[in-house]
C-alpha cells in the first residue's frame, strides 16, 4: 500500500470507494508478488480461478472485445511439485552481468562488473570470496555494505582483489538484486572477472539492459522512461558507429571476426545436423534406418574440440593484450642473466663470473608465438649480509610472487643443492600467501658443461613434483631455449597454437556463447557417458545450438524439422 | 460486514505489491463508482440441476439484443432449439467438444451431417504415435474420450521409442474403425445434456455485439446458443480428387458442406485451402502374407487412458511389412505426368511428413525401395490399409501399382486412394482459448484450424468444448500455456505461426518435452480438470491415490539402504558401476540401465504398486536432475514470456517496432510477450520495444487512474459517512 499510505487519512475516509475498487481489481488482475508477472503470478491466477470463494464476472468491461481474461496454466506437474523444495524454484528471470565502466581507452585504476537479477547474489557468491570468511560457504551479504575479498575462477585460482558492493532489491538501480564487483581497471582483469561471472551462471547483458530493467521494474519516471527507447536505440547506433570506426581503424580485426563467425555458424550447423539425425529417429521411429551412435559421438567430440580451440583463442587474445610476466629465479651464479640475454638476444643484463652480480630486477621483452613476454631477471636468492644484495633478494622474492610463471634456474654443474631446496621452499611460501599456484619451470642450465646431468636429473627432480616442467638449457649456445618456449606455452595453455599465431579474435559476446556451448557439450558428453537415452542428448544439443545462435530465442524446431523433411524420406 | 471480510481476504492474498497493481490498470470508471455493478455467479455444478434458473447471466445481453420470444429460455415449446453450446461436426474434435461441454453441465447440441459417421476414421484407423500419444494421454487426463475408446477398440498396440527416453516413448494403437465409431457414438448418445441432430449448418447467427447467437441449417432450421463450436473437418467446400477427376465431397461417398465458407467470409474471416489424402484399401483376403515380415503387438499392453476401467486386454492382430519394388518405381516414373503435382494441375503440395509415393520416388531417387506397412482396419472388415502408399495417380493405374508390391500380386482393391481439398480458417483468427477474435462465443477446432490427425483434433476439441461451456456460463476461459502440455504447444503454434501445411504434432515442436511426458499427463492436467468439474469423484479419487502411492514409494526408496548382497551385486554388474555400502535404493535406481524391475526381482520392490506407478517412480528418480534443470530453465523464461499484452494495442502506432513486426503483430494479435516473440518476423529488438511501450503505457494509465481514484474518493467523501471499520492496519501492512 505504498501509494495509499501516502494519504492514510484519505484511505480511511473513503473506504467504501476503495473497497469497490479492490473488488474490481480483484476481478481484473491476478495478484502479483513481484513486479514482473512471474510464475507465482500464474500459479496464483490459477489458484485464484479455482479456489476463489466467489465466481467472478470477467467480461464486464465494455472496451474488451472478448473475455480474454484467461486463466494461465503453467506446468504444474504435481508429482514434481511434491519433491521440489521451495528454494529450488525461486529463481525467476535471468541474471545479467556486464562491465559497466568504459573499456577501450587507457585503463582506469578501477573497473566495475555489475550483476543484476534474482540470482545475482548467488552468482557473486560463487566467484567472490570475502576476506572475512564466514564458516558456511553461502555468501550472505548485507545490502549496501562494501566487502573486501578476492574473485576466484572455477578452479579456485585468485583472479583479482576486489570490493563487492551488494545492493539488494528493491534498493538498487534495476530494483533487482545487484552486486557490483570493483576490480582493477585493466581490460584483461575486467574480462576475466566477467567471464568468471558468466561461467558461474550469469548471462551477458545486452546493450542498455540494466537501464531497460530499471525502467521495466518501475525505477525511472515517465519522462525518463520515454527516453529509454531512444537511449537504447542510440546505444546500438553508437555501437554501429564504433563498429564503423573499427572497420577503418582495424580492417584486419573485422576480418578475423568474420572468420570466427563462419566457424561458429558451422558449429551451429553441426548441432542442427546432429539434432536432425536424432529427432528424425524420435518422431519417425519405424521409418528410419538405425542411428550410428559412434559417428554421432565422434561428431560431438570434434565439436567440443572446436569450441575448446575457439575458447583458446579467447585466452590467446587476453594474453596478446596483457602478455606474460616470467620471473627467472635461482641461486647466485647459475646463469640466470645469461639465460635472459640469450633468450632476448640482447646484452640486457651484465654477466660476470662473480656471484651476486645482478642486484636489481632487470626486464627484457621477448615474443613467443606473438605473445609479449616480459622476462624478469632477479638477484640470486641467498642469505646474505650485504645490504644492497639483501634488498635485491627481497625484490627477487616479490617479483616471483607477482609473476605469471617462474623459471627456477639451477646449474647442471653443481647439481641440486641444499640451497636449491631452501630456495624452493621460499618460493613455495611466497605462493601460498596469494593463494594461487604459480607454475614453476625448472631450467637446468649449463648443460653443456655436464651433458650426463640429463639422466641424473630425472631422479633428482622426482622429489620436487612442484615443477610443472623441466628443460635443459645452455645459455651460451642457446640450446634448449626452444624447449623452454614450448614449456611456457604449454603451461599457459597455448601449446596448440600454430607458430603463425591465431587467425581470429574473440569478443565478449562470442566468448559467452562459447562458454555456454562448452558447458552444454560437456553435459552432453556426460549424458553419453552415463548412457542416458537418446532423447536426453537432444536437450543439451539444443542448448548448444541455441547458445551459438545469432538471435536469442530463435526457433530451432522449425529448422530441425525442415532439415528432417529435406534429408529423410519420411511419411506414411 | 461481508464485504469487509472479502476485502481483507483479498488483501492478504495480494500481499505486498498489491498497491503497485492496484493502480496499474484503469478499470472502466462507471464500474469503479458503482458497487452494485459487480455481479457474482453461482457456481454451476450439475449434471442434474434441472432448475438452473436463467442459466447463464450472459444471456441477459443476448435476450435484450434479439426479438422477444425466440430467446426466451423459460418458453416451453421452443426449448428444444435453445442450447448452451452447439457443436457443428461429429468427428474427433466435435465429439470431444460436445462431451466436454455436456459433462460440464452445458446443454449441448451436436449437429452432424450423418449420424452414422460419428467419430469415423477416414484415414488410417490408428491412434497415437510419437507426440500424438502424448496428446491422447493429455486429453484423457482432462477426461476426454479418445484414449478410452482407443483402449477399448485396439487391434494392435505397440510402444515406440522404448529405449530412447521417457519423454519420447509413445504408444500407438491400430484400432477397429467400425467398432471405434460405434463405441464413440454410443458414448455420445448416452451422455446426459447432449443431444444429436443431423443437419448441414450453412450460416452463423449473430447478435448485436459481434457475438454468436446460434446457427442456421440448410433446411432453414435455427438453433440458438451463446457458444458455437465449428469442427467442419474436410467438409467445408470439400472436393475429392482421383487422378484428374474431382467431385465435391467431404470424404469419399459423403457430400460436402456448402455455404458456410462464404458466410464466414462475409463475417470477415479469412479462409484458405488445404489438401490431404488417403491411400487405397485392399481386400485382406487377397493378400499373401506368407512372405511378409510380420509386426506383432507388444506382449505387455500399455494404455492411453489413466482410467483402469478400460484396461481390458484383447486379442491382437498382426500388421505386415512390405516394400516397393523396381517395378513400382518404374510405373510411377512412366506416369508422373498423370499425378496432380507433377502433371501440374494442382499447385498445393501435400504435407511434408506425409508425401505421396510419387513424391518419395522423385525426391529420393537413390533409395531403391520404400517401406510399406499393411495394417488391418478391423476385426469384421476385410479392409487393409496400405500405409506409405498414398498417390494422386488415376484409379486405373492404382491397382497395377499395388500389385507390384510383394504379397499384393493378386490383390483386389476395395477403395481407391484419393486426395481431398477443403477450406480452413488460418488459426491466427483464434485466441488460445480457440474462441475466434472476431466473434465472441464462436470457437473453431480440428481441421478447420489447419491441423491433421484425430489426436490433434481431439485435443482442440476438448479445449473448445470446455471453453464453449464456460463462456456460456459466463466463466473465465481456460488457456493451456505452451509449456504446460502438448495441447498448449499445439494451440500456441496454430494461433501464432504461419502454417505451410496441415499441422501435425511432433515431439520436436515442444521446447521442453522432457517435462511433457505421457506418464505425467495426469499430474499436469487432472487437477485442473477436477477443479473445473470435468473429472468425476471416482477418477479424482483414483488419481489422488495413485499420486500418494508414487510419492510414498519415492520416500521409501530414499530411506531404505542396502549394503552388499545379491541386489548390490546385480546392480553393479548391470550398470557397470560400483555400489557403495549403505546405498539407498534411490541411488541404485539412478544408475544406468537399472530399472525398477531389478528391485522387484530381489524383493525390494513394492508389490502394491502397478506397473505404471513403478514406471512413474523410476522416471522421477532416474531423471530427477534433468527434470529439475528443465523446470528451472522454464521458469526463468516464463517470467517474461507470460507478460500479457493488451488486446487493444495499436501496433501500427508503435514506431519503434520494425515495419514487418507491426504488420505481423497486428495480424496475429498475440496475447503474451512469449507468443509475440514466436511470431515470424518479430525480432528480439521488437520485443524490447514492446516491453518499453507496455511499461510506458502502464505508467500513463497509473497516473490517470490515480487521478480518477482521488477524484472518486473526494466525491464519495461528500456523499457518505465514514464507516467504522478498522481496516487501516491491513491496508497499510
TrEMBL record, chain A:
Q: Give the originating organism.
A: Arachis hypogaea (Peanut)
One Pfam family of this protein, by short name? TrmE_N
Q: SUPFAM superfamilies, per this entry?
A: P-loop containing nucleoside triphosphate hydrolases
Q: Which GO terms describe its cellular component?
A: chloroplast; cytosol
Q: Which InterPro entries match?
A: G_TrmE (IPR031168), GTP-bd (IPR006073), GTP-bd_TrmE_N (IPR018948), GTPase_MnmE (IPR004520), MnmE_dom2 (IPR027368), MnmE_helical (IPR025867), P-loop_NTPase (IPR027417), Small_GTP-bd (IPR005225)
Q: Which HAMAP family match?
A: GTPase_MnmE
Recorded protein name is: TrmE-type G domain-containing protein
One Gene Ontology molecular-function label: GTP binding
A GO biological-process term: tRNA methylation
Q: Which PANTHER family match?
A: TRNA MODIFICATION GTPASE GTPBP3, TRNA MODIFICATION GTPASE GTPBP3, MITOCHONDRIAL
Keywords assigned by UniProt, alphabetized: Cytoplasm, GTP-binding, Hydrolase, Magnesium, Metal-binding, Nucleotide-binding, Potassium, tRNA processing
TrEMBL record, chain B:
Q: Which GO terms describe its biological process?
A: mitochondrial tRNA wobble uridine modification; tRNA methylation
Stored SUPFAM superfamilies: FAD/NAD(P)-binding domain (SSF51905)
State if Nucleotide-binding is listed as a keyword. Answer: no
Task: Tell me the ranges covered by the tRNA uridine 5-carboxymethylaminomethyl modification enzyme C-terminal subdomain domain, including all copies.
Answer: 621-692
Keywords, ordered alphabetically: Cytoplasm, FAD, Flavoprotein, NAD, tRNA processing
Its domain of life reads: Eukaryota
Example GO molecular function term? Answer: flavin adenine dinucleotide binding
Q: Which GO terms describe its cellular component?
A: mitochondrion
Cofactor(s) the record lists: FAD
Tell me the HAMAP family matching this sequence. Answer: MnmG_GidA
> Which family does the record assign?
Belongs to the MnmG family.
NCBIfam families this protein is in? mnmG_gidA
Protein name per the record: tRNA uridine 5-carboxymethylaminomethyl modification enzyme C-terminal subdomain domain-containing protein
Amino acid at each position: 500500500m505504498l501509494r495509499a499510505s501516502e494519504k492514510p487519512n484519505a484511505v480511511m475516509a473513503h473506504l467504501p470507494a476503495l473497497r469497490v475498487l479492490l473488488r474490481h481489481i480483484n476481478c481484473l488482475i491476478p495478484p502479483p508478488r513481484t513486479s514482473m508477472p512471474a510464475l507465482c503470478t500464474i500459479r496464483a491466477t490459477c489458484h485464484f480461478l479455482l479456489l476463489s470463494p466467489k465466481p467472478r464476472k470477467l467480461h464486464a468491461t465494455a472496451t474488451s472485445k472478448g473475455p480474454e481474461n484467461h486463466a494461465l496454466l503453467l506446468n504444474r506437474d504435481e508429482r514434481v511439485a511434491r519433491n521440489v523444495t521451495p528454494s529450488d524454484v525461486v529463481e525467476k528471470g535471468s541474471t545479467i552481468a556486464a562491465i559497466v565502466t568504459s573499456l577501450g581507452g587507457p585503463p582506469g585504476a578501477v573497473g566495475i562488473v555489475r550483476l543484476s537479477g534474482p540470482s545475482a547474489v548467488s552468482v557473486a557468491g560463487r566467484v567472490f570470496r570475502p576476506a572475512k570468511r564466514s564458516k558456511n560457504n553461502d555468501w550472505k551479504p548485507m545490502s549496501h555494505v562494501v566487502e573486501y575479498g578476492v574473485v576466484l575462477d572455477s578452479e579456485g585460482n585468485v583472479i583479482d582483489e576486489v570490493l563487492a558492493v551488494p545492493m539488494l532489491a528493491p534498493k538498487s538501480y534495476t530494483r533487482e538484486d545487484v552486486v557490483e564487483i570493483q576490480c582493477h581497471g585493466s581490460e584483461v582483469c575486467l574480462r576475466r572477472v566477467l567471464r568468471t561471472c558468466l561461467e558461474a551462471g550469469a548471462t551477458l547483458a545486452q546493450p542498455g539492459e540494466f537501464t531497460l530493467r530499471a525502467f521495466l521494474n518501475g525505477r525511472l519516471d515517465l519522462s525518463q522512461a520515454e527516453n529509454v527507447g531512444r537511449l537504447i536505440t542510440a546505444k546500438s547506433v553508437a555501437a554501429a558507429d564504433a563498429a564503423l570506426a573499427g572497420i577503418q581503424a582495424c580492417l584486419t580485426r573485422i576480418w578475423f571476426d568474420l572468420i570466427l563467425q563462419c566457424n561458429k555458424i558451422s558449429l551451429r550447423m553441426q548441432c542442427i545436423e546432429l539434432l536432425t539425425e536424432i529427432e528424425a529417429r524420435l518422431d519417425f521411429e519405424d521409418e528410419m534406418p538405425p542411428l550410428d551412435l559412434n559417428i554421432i559421438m565422434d561428431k560431438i567430440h570434434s565439436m567440443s574440440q572446436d569450441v575448446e580451440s575457439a575458447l583458446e583463442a579467447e585466452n590467446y587474445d587476453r594474453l596478446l593484450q596483457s602478455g606474460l610476466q616470467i620471473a627467472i629465479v635461482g641461486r647466485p651464479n647459475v646463469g640466470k642473466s645469461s639465460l635472459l640475454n640469450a633468450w632476448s638476444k640482447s646484452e640486457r643484463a651484465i654477466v660476470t663470473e662473480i656471484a651476486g652480480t645482478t642486484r636489481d630486477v632487470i626486464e627484457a621483452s621477448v615474443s613467443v608465438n606473438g605473445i609479449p613476454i616480459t622476462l624478469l631477471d632477479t638477484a640470486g636468492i641467498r642469505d646474505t649480509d650485504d645490504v644492497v644484495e639483501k634488498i635485491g633478494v627481497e625484490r627477487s622474492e616479490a617479483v616471483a610472487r607477482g609473476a605469471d610463471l617462474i623459471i627456477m634456474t639451477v646449474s647442471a654443474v653443481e647439481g641440486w643443492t641444499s640451497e636449491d631446496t631452501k630456495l624452493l621452499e621460499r618460493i613455495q611460501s611466497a605462493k601460498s600467501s596469494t593463494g594461487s599456484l604459480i607454475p614453476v619451470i625448472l631450467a637446468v642450465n649449463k648443460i653443456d658443461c655436464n651433458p650426463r646431468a640429463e639422466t641424473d636429473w630425472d631422479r633428482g627432480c622426482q622429489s620436487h613434483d612442484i615443477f610443472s616442467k623441466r628443460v635443459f638449457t645452455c645459455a651460451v649456445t642457446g640450446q634448449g631455449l626452444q624447449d623452454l618456449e614450448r614449456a611456457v606455452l604449454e603451461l599457459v595453455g597455448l601449446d596448440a597454437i600454430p607458430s603463425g599465431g591465431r587467425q581470429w579474435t574473440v569478443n565478449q559476446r562470442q566468448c559467452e556463447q562459447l562458454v555456454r556451448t562448452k558447458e552444454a557439450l560437456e553435459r552432453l558428453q556426460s549424458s553419453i557417458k552415463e548412457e542416458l537415452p537418446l532423447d536426453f542428448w537432444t536437450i543439451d544439443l539444443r542448448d548448444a545450438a541455441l547458445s551459438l545462435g545469432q538471435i536469442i530465442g530463435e526457433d530451432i524446431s522449425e529448422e530441425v524439422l525442415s532439415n528432417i523433411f529435406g534429408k529423410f524420406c519420411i511419411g506414411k | 460486514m461481508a464485504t469487509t471480510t472479502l476485502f481483507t481476504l483479498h488483501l492478504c492474498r495480494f500481499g505486498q505489491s498489491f498497491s503497485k497493481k492496484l493502480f496499474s490498470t484503469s478499470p472502466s470508471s462507471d464500474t469503479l463508482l458503482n458497487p452494485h455493478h459487480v455481479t457474482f455467479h453461482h457456481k454451476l455444478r450439475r449434471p442434474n440441476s434441472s432448475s438452473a434458473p436463467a442459466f447463464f447471466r450472459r444471456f441477459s445481453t443476448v435476450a435484450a439484443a434479439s426479438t422477444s420470444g425466440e430467446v426466451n429460455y423459460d418458453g416451453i415449446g421452443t426449448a428444444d432449439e435453445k442450447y448452451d453450446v452447439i457443436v457443428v461436426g461429429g468427428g474427433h474434435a466435435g465429439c470431444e467438444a460436445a462431451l466436454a461441454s455436456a459433462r460440464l453441465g452445458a446443454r449441448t447440441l451436436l449437429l452432424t451431417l450423418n449420424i452414422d459417421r460419428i467419430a469415423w476414421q477416414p484415414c488410417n484407423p490408428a491412434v497415437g504415435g510419437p507426440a500424438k500419444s502424448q496428446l491422447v494421454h493429455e486429453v484423457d487426463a482432462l477426461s476426454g474420450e479418445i484414449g478410452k475408446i482407443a483402449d477399448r477398440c485396439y487391434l494392435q498396440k505397440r510402444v515406440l521409442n522404448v529405449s530412447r527416453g521417457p519423454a519420447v516413448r509413445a504408444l500407438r494403437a491400430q484400432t477397429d474403425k467400425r467398432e471405434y465409431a460405434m463405441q464413440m457414438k454410443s458414448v455420445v448418445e448416452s451422455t446426459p445434456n447432449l443431444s444429436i441432430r443431423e443437419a448441414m449448418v450453412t450460416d452463423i447467427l449473430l447478435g448485436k455485439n459481434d457475438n454468436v447467437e446460434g446457427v442456421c441449417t440448410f433446411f432453414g432450421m435455427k438453433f440458438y446458443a451463446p457458444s458455437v463450436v465449428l469442427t467442419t473437418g474436410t467438409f467445408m467446400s470439400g472436393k475429392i480428387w482421383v487422378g484428374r477427376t474431382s467431385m465435391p465431397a467431404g470424404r469419399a461417398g459423403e457430400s460436402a458442406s456448402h455455404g458456410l465458407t462464404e458466410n464466414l467470409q462475409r463475417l470477415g474471416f479469412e479462409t484458405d485451402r488445404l489438401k490431404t489424402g488417403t491411400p487405397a484399401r485392399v481386400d485382406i483376403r487377397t493378400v499373401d502374407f506368407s512372405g511378409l515380415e510380420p509386426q506383432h503387438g507388444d506382449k505387455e499392453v500399455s494404455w492411453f487412458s489413466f482410467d483402469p476401467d478400460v484396461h481390458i486386454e484383447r486379442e491382437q492382430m498382426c500388421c505386415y511389412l512390405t516394400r516397393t519394388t523396381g517395378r513400382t518405381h518404374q510405373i510411377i516414373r512412366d506416369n508422373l505426368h498423370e499425378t496432380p503435382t507433377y502433371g501440374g494441375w494442382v499447385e498445393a503440395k501435400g504435407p511434408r511428413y506425409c508425401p505421396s509415393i510419387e513424391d518419395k520416388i522423385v525426391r529420393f531417387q537413390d533409395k531403391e525401395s520404400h517401406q510399406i506397412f499393411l495394417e488391418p482396419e478391423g476385426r469384421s472388415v476385410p479392409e487393409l490399409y496400405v500405409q506409405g502408399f498414398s498417390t494422386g495417380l488415376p484409379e486405373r493405374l492404382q491397382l497395377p501399382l499395388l500389385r507390384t508390391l510383394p504379397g499384393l500380386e493378386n490383390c483386389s482393391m476395395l477403395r481407391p486412394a484419393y486426395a481431398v481439398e477443403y477450406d480452413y480458417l488460418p488459426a491466427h483468427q483464434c485466441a488460445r482459448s480457440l474462441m475466434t477474435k472476431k466473434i465472441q462465443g464462436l470457437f473453431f477446432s480440428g481441421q478447420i484450424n489447419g491441423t491433421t490427425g484425430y489426436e490433434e483434433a481431439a485435443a482442440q476439441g476438448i479445449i473448445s468444448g470446455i471453453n464453449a461451456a464456460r463462456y456460456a456460463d459466463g466463466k473465465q476461459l481456460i488457456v493451456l500455456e505452451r509449456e504446460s502440455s502438448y495441447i498448449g504447444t499445439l494451440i500456441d503454434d496454430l494461433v501464432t505461426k504461419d502454417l505451410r501445411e496441415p499441422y501435425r504434432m511432433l515431439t520436436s515442436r515442444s521446447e521442453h518435452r522432457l517435462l511433457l511426458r505421457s506418464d505425467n499427463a495426469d499430474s499436469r492436467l487432472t487437477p485442473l480438470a477436477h477443479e473445473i468439474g470435468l473429472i468425476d469423484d471416482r477418477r479424482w479419487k483414483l488419481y489422488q491415490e495413485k499420486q500418494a502411492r508414487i510419492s510414498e514409494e519415492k520416500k521409501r526408496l530414499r530411506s531404505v539402504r542396502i549394503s552388499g548382497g545379491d541386489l548390490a551385486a546385480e546392480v553393479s554388474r548391470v550398470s557397470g558401476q560400483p555400489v557403495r555400502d549403505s546405498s539407498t535404493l534411490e541411488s541404485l535406481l539412478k544408475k544406468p540401465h537399472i530399472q525398477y524391475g531389478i528391485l522387484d526381482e530381489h524383493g525390494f520392490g513394492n508389490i502394491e504398486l502397478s506397473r505404471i506407478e513403478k514406471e512413474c517412480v523410476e522416471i522421477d528418480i532416474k531423471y530427477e536432475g534433468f527434470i529439475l534443470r528443465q523446470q528451472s530453465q522454464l521458469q526463468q523464461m516464463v517470467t517474461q514470456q507470460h507478460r500479457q499484452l493488451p488486446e487493444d494495442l495499436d501496433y501500427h502506432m508503435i514506431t519503434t517496432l520494425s515495419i514487418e513486426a507491426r504488420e505481423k503483430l497486428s495480424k496475429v494479435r498475440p496475447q503474451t510477450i512469449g507468443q509475440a516473440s514466436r511470431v515470424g518476423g518479430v525480432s528480439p529488438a521488437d520485443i524490447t520495444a514492446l516491453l518499453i511501450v507496455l511499461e510506458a503505457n502502464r505508467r500513463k494509465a497509473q497516473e490517470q487512474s490515480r487521478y480518477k481514484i482521488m477524484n472518486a474518493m473526494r466525491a464519495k467523501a461528500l456523499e457518505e459517512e465514514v464507516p467504522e471499520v478498522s481496516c487501516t492496519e491491513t491496508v497499510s501492512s
